[in-house]
Each structure stands twice: as C-alpha cells, then as structure tokens.
Amino acid sequence: MERTKSIPLQPPTYGNLITVLSIDGGGIRGLIPGTILAFLESELQKLDGEDARLADYFDVIAGTSTGGLVTAMLTAPDENNRPLFAANDIKEFYLNECPKIFPQKTFPLFPHVTKIIKALTGPKYNGKYLHSLVRQKLGDKKLHQTLTNVVIPTFDIRSLQPTIFSSFEVNHKPCFDALLSDICIGTSAAPTYLPAHYFKTKDGEGNVKEFNLIDGGVAANNPTLLAIGEVTKAIIKGSSDFFPIKPMDYGRFLVISLGTGSPKDEVKYNAHDAAKWGLLNWLTSGGSTPIINVFSYGSADMVDLNLSVVFQALHSEKNYLRIEDDTLTGHVSSVDISDKKNLDDLLIVNGLSGIRISANLRKRMDKSLFTCS
Fold this sequence. Notes:
The protein is an alpha/beta fold and 373 residues long. It has a single domain (15-369), classed as Cytosolic phospholipase A2 catalytic domain (3-Layer(aba) Sandwich), CATH 3.40.1090. It has helices at residues 31-48, 66-75, 89-101, 111-121, 128-138, 180-187, 217-220, 224-236, 271-274, 279-283, 290-313, 340-366; strands at residues 18-23, 60-63, 149-156, 161-166, 197-202, 208-215, 253-258, 320-323. A hairpin with a 4-residue loop joins strand 3 (149-156) and strand 4 (161-166). Residues 21-228 form the PNPLA domain.
C-alpha cells in the first residue's frame, strides 16, 4: 500500500517546514472554505502553472464532516494520478448537490409540530442521495491511495471513542484502510440530521473490523490539532519523511486552518431560556439543534485557542493562520437550509468576507508562505 506521489518531492515538501491544511465541519457552509481554497489554488497556479493542485503543496490535509468530504475531493486520485477535483470545483459541487442532499420539505398543516415529530422519530434526512453521490464520485478509492497524507476524524458509537482515519497509520493498522466513500459518509453523519453509518473492512490476513460511525464533529469539528498530532506521532516513530525535525519542533509547522463560519456576533441562546429546556428543546430550537451547535463550536474554538497559545509561545505565530468568519446571522449560519435563496445569501456573505480573507492570504503568500526555507 505504498503511496504514490503526484510530484517527486519528499515530505516535508517545502524545505524545513511541514505544511498542514485543516478544514472544519459545517454542512452547507463548506462553501466558505471551498471558496477560500479555490482562491489559494488559483494563486499557486499563477506561480507554478495551471496544473498545480493543493495536494501538491500540503504534507497533510485534515477535514471533519463536510471538511472531510472536501479533503477527499482534493486528494483522491484520478486515472492519471492527479486529484479528482480542482479546488475551483468545490463551490459548484455544493451549489448543485446541497439542495439534493438536504431537500427542504414544507409541511402545510401544523409545520412546527410536524418538524418536532420528525425530529423525535428519525434523522431529518435519510442520506440516500449523499451516500450514492459520494460512492459515485470516489468509487473504490481507499485511504492509502490519497495523493498526500490525510486525517479524517469520526466517532464510533459502539465503542464511544473517536475513530481517526489517518494515512500515517494505514501501514500499521490495515483494517483502517477503508473506502474513502465510507469514511466521508461516516464523518458526515451528524446526529439528528443524517443516519449513523455502518461498514466493515477486512485486512490481508482476513481480520474483520466493524465501524459504527457518526459525525467526527462531535469530537473534533476543527481537526487541526489532530493533523499536527498525527505528524508528531510519525516523527516520534522515526519516520524518515520528516527527518531531522523533532517531535516538539512546532516552529517547523506551517498551518492553515479554515473554519466554516459561525454566528458569534448574533445572540443564539441564553441561560434564561435554556434553564427551562428539556430534551426536546436541546434537540430543536429556532430551527437549529442547540446540543450539536454547542459541541461543534466549542470543540473548534478550543483547538484554535490552544494552538494560538502554542505558536505564540514558540514565537511562531506567523506559522499559524486561522481563517474564520464570525459574522454569520440568520439562515446563513444553518448547516442544512439549502434552498436557492439561502445558498445565494451565503455566497454574498462569503464574497464580502472573502475580500478581507483573500487580502490576508495574499499578504501571507507575498511573504513567502510557500517558499523553501
């Protein structure tokens, strides 16, 4: 299961730096990092030609939930051993497919009551279109075939433990060499929104491994720290790919961490109301799922807070770039409202924030973000 490289350089790809790209979960808001990635890839193409792809520039790409799907799209190989998708394809993918993945149903009679009953009796969406689409796009590609190292977290509800699908571990744990389609379906199986995903794998010796997975966002909606951890473990094990970098040499990491937006400037909930909530209210309130929001936003912010402190302590804060839009309001902060108006509104918000983000990213690139040390 030896990895095939799309370019002849060995990791770390850029001099003495280990390059990491991380993409948060967030449902339809994957449009936000998708747009940023398209800009980044276009800038790299200006430097290195139109065939340049993000997988050529990052030693590891990590993604959770919708970010896991983007990760697979950027790194799965085509018949020419190049990425199946260019970053520029991601936006159209979301615009075309999200309305079918998250169909918006209307309930003319007692809509609120009907939605509550639906929420209590099964997932909001059956996931059939998503499963079919992912299997069609990714085919029989497996984890070991990605064009650069990937890290995609999920959560196994049978063992009640995070299950991390990592390129770094495939040789040691062959049962984790699952189909990319199964991994993507698993990491996207958000509780109350999409059904849990079961599959099993078999290694060369006939050992069977069963997986009972839900969305990785319940444990690590921001997978940046996981990605750094997987590289660190590889260094500890003496991987020649990263010699002579030492395990705690975080100053040698160059990290871009992309969020999917959040409504921090908008008051979502308050203690006065939540003090009266029971199980039903925590599952559905104001068109969202508070318990899921609390887990996903909380875990993502905790990772960012910790990494910011670490990189500052090492005087390497310029090596860590977290891009997040905290100004989302109303329906654009939803993970699943996929009607045309909301997707158009999300693009408008994304475009306005993208002006600031693109300027920041271009400034970083002008300061040799991807040049050899």
